[in-house]
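Risk register update: the risk of archive-format incompatibility is retired. Evidence:
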Amino acid sequence: MQDFRTETFLDVCDTLSYTRTAQRLNITQPAVSQHISHLEAVYGTKLFSYSNRRLSLTEAGEVLRDALTVMAHDERLVKERIAALSGKRRTIGFGATMTAGEYVIARPLARFLQQRPDLQVKVVASGTDDLLALLHEGVLDCALVEGFFDKGYYDWEVYCTEQLVAVCAPGCRLAEEPQRLEGLLGEHLIVREPGSGTRAVLEHALAARNLSLDGFARTTEVTSISIIKALVESGYGIAFLYESAVRAECTAGTLRAIELDGPAIEHDMTFIWLRGSLFEREFRGLVHELAVCAGEV
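Archived output:
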């Protein structure tokens, strides 16, 4: 079970300041120092180092932080499971990146929840980096991400593989014949913001060809997938979006896919949760149930 000293330690990991932690926890700064010293004595090593007026975690501190973060998260889930025994609904903190949330998981999730009246879900849609932070803060239990993540810190399971496609307006010459990726650099590119999984996958694919976003004639950053599609439909530029996000528009003819020479740009959409969680089996079961629901939609 977590106690006040581990709470202090995790807060210092977040603030990297004894003073700010004391203010946030409404305790004195000497108390913060005492709590950290106690843990260092228990584990027989320094957890923080101080250099150039900056506090930082030692390697041992990072190990302890990761372990206690998982423990704190699992303790909350245990409390909710116990409360559920008396009839209270269990809550799942569920995150999804924008494309994954709107075009991949929304309908399967709705079907899943219809079958599970014992659950209530808190859904957060945001960029991959934001979702990773919320997992570590304990706000989320698991997340479906399209971006890249460090597999050393999370347990994970691939949900599906999506293709990133280039799209343009109807009647655009680019859709008339296959194009080389390099041949699109003279175009105006409408792209998601930094931190977006879609953008990260595109940047990775470009880098594999020694290209970058800077190589395009012009770029416009837009945070909304719907706005990007509307701009492309009007002939304002081209965009790279996941096939699931533009399937309806390409079928209706309001967008055209640009056929690219070479291998398709593909990327996994992956469920992740904190590595070492006692509830790993439950999270994997959730992924399976959502996949079944996706097949029924």
